[in-house]
Amino acid sequence: MVGDEASYLRDEREGMRFEDIVLTEEEIREGLAFSSRLQDECENTRDRVPGVVDYADDLGRLGEIAFSIATELPINRRTGVSKQAGDVGGVEVRTTRYNEVGRLLVRKFDLPDKPFALVTSLTSDPPWRRFRIPGWIVGRDAQRDEWLDDPNGRGEAWWVPQTALRPISELLELRAEWAAR
After folding, report:
1. Torsion of CA 55, 61, 65, 67, to 10 degrees
2. How far apart are CA 19 and CA 149, in angstroms?
3. For the chain, what are the domain ranges?
4. What is the structure's pLDDT at 36?
């Protein structure tokens, strides 16, 4: 039933497809399995212990799957690729569990010409099943002094409020133009 429900939401809600993306059990299992493999394989793993789950990475991977489903862009399933490749269809996807107040994080080392999209979970705790996409911004446009912050003690970054993001439909239109060139 869950799969049928998710398909219904994807197919029947054309105008609202970025507001309520529901992942199936299979999509969640696949995303968590990939996240676990990625955590074990990556060299740039902050202070991780192999085999130990990092919920931020799990949420991030599920957000990427939700973004891929909603936008019909391909998800990058390779590890160790350059930031140029992006997470989904050339887009850097940032996911937060804070639906209404979550901000899009753009770090100082992120590529300024890349598009960054925000995905928020509609539930704050696992299992994360429902997501929405508030919008997107180009990295250089995120680099505004008033958004520079260090709320978690991990170094300054730009934290873009949802109200400053562009509609995701705009990004898809621009991608179509870029591909036609």
Report:
1. 100
2. 27
3. 2-180
4. 63
